[in-house]
User: Fold these one by one.
Assistant:
Number 1:
Amino acid sequence: MRQWTHEPAHQLAKAVRNGEVTARQVAEQHLSLIAARNDGLRAFTDVTANRALAKADAIDSAYAQRLKLPPLAGVPFAVKNLFDVAGLVTRAGAKINRDYAPASADATLVVRMEAAGAVLLGALNMGEYAYDFTGRNAHDGHARNPHDPERMTGGSSGGSGGAAAAGLAAITLGSDTNGSIRVPASLCGLFGLKPSYGGLSRAGTFPFIASLDHVGPLARSVQDLALAYDAMRGADPLDPVCTNGTAEPVTPSLEGDLAGLRIKRAGGYFTRMGDTQAFAAVDTIAHALGAEASIELPEAHRARAAAFIITMIEGSSLHRDRIRERPQDFDPEVRDRLIAGAMLPGDWYVKAQKFRRWYQAGVMKLFQETDLILAPATPTSAPLVDQKTFVLDGQTLPVRPNLGIFTQPISFIGLPVVTVPVWPAQGMPIGVQIIAAPGKEGLALRAAHWLECRGIVQAKVAP
């Protein structure tokens, strides 16, 4: 039988709708692959096989009755284990959370994906409490990159990146506070969408930094990102920041041309502290899109510093009681950063938020003269799993905080970003950010789709 685990989501859904394959056959193939590969990749922490097969059978029954099938019919997906899944404990990558009761209901986005016909396979590994850029987890094992298991997936959505790149799921959902969708997309050679802040509902997800948290999909094609986004978009009264109920669907505009779009490269800060591969990837995308001019985001280095301050102070506030009561049950690296955040002066937080408003206003002025901005997604391709440091611009720096060096100044003000994977002649992939103004996900997706259709970017299933 044809190996359906290698197909992108839109092709799988088309095949199910056309009767080329049953949803059960697709689900069984993916469950078999998870059973065969997950021990080595540490992508899934929970597999919902019975639920998946029951959903697949319902889709096949609807097909037999000649009912119209929804756009993601039979598409296997999985979610970072900070999404509530009824009957599963919402781990959020933490040992402490395992003592909590299982979720009584699904997160909003799980409900919406299933309403669109997608089949939930389970929950995915992640960095503890999402405070991570590497994909390492001291409790569930470190997620490993399917393209080279000696290397990182990136994090904190490490299982989301590994599962999609290995063909264990066609679409995965992750969260992105400072870069946790874009970093795994870059290191695992995937397409990733971090929507505008408030663009998708976070209801039913375990929080990290409420003023910075985003959720979104990773996939092996731009069309899959668009289909998932359209299935999940819409206002949700359960998430007070998710108010964009009038957003237009993005899938119909994917095929539009790029004529008239003003596309520029991010200069200054985004041309330093990366290796030659990171900047060569931006060159590739910029040349293809005719983006030879550059534009500088004002004080981007201070934006990153302010994002760190907000993250440390809000994160330590959220977890203060857990640290007091069960400090020994944290990953020591996570615990120590949370303790450090608790000791920062409160006026630093106030100043960081004031700077955030100033910085956002300055960046929004840039979008009066450009539509899309290109920047590296990560400073390097995937480091080794146990690698602690790397050299950037002649400086030896810790890997864990600095994989997000190019993502933090963007998520800090809630801009939508599509990450596209560039493959060198040899070696591991690396991503480029296509950044748009708030609410303009469709423009970034259209540019990414144009690049994909011309073979300039692609996502490969790891063998």
Number 2:
Amino acid sequence: MAKKLRENITSDYMEAANRLNSKKTKRRIVAYVESYDDVFFWRTVFSQFENDQRYFEVMLPSRHRLERGKKSVLMRLLAKNAGSDLVCCVDADYDYLIQGVTETSRTMLGSPYVFHTYAYAIENLQCYAPSLRTVCVAVTLNDHEIFDFNDFLARYSEAIFPLFVWSIWYYRRPIYTEFTITDFNKVIELGGFNLDNPMASIKHVRRKVYVRVGDLQKKNPDAKESYLDLKRELIEELGVTPQTTYLYIQGHHLFEKLVLPVMGKVCARLIRDREMEIRRQSVHSTQMRNELSCYSHSTQDIAQMLKKNMGYLVSDPFRQILSDVQMFFTRKSQGTESTPTP
């Protein structure tokens, strides 16, 4: 019986359990997340709201059936399981930017018990541009700045922004299958990256975007006004700027197809420079071998360090998440928990 209850935790169950506890016992709030990789991220969110009266436990929707994914998390909400002691945490995907066009988007945006990333996914925040140099230092233990991630991702974002607006334009309509996220990703691929000439990659992407935008304009001759309205909405209301578009494209694509390859080239150069320095400074071959071995064992895996990157704590999307959680507790204290988020 106890096992069955653990598999089917509801907010009512959590509230009842909390009422049975001593007044001195901290109130337990369960937060359902999509996957194992999300547990650490949402822990960084909720740890800032824990005190001597409450604590969070971040987990998958079921500990026994290994349910995962956005649909699994939101099904808990649709089954009316969520409440003041049980919340749902999901990647925003496009559901934030399409603003309620689909049922999933309406569910995510319309409930005070659902928190989302604003950026497309957690991976986007892990690739937050101002933090990437620090990640490179953590990987290579070399603090020499040889590449400007802020400038590169800003220029890349500017290059893809016109096509990104079209992508959202299509996903706000029932014709989205005519220009899918997969189609969009194929256009915005770098197609190779040269650390000594990074702008060549940007120019390559810009040319591909220009061609595809031209095709979409011809295919939708009456869309100019709605396109410009959407562009203004994205910038002025939803926080997507031409310089930060990378935060809102598909997270896996950004992580694996863009940031990892670029960081791989940067870190390889930094490691090579450090090894050359060791060779120059070594007094004899034994010292050189020992130092090179020590340094090699001290370097880290890029992907793993990116997944542990917390530089996003100062990003605008993360601040929006914190604001939503704060609003959740404000409504709770005012007795207006059922009021949907705007």
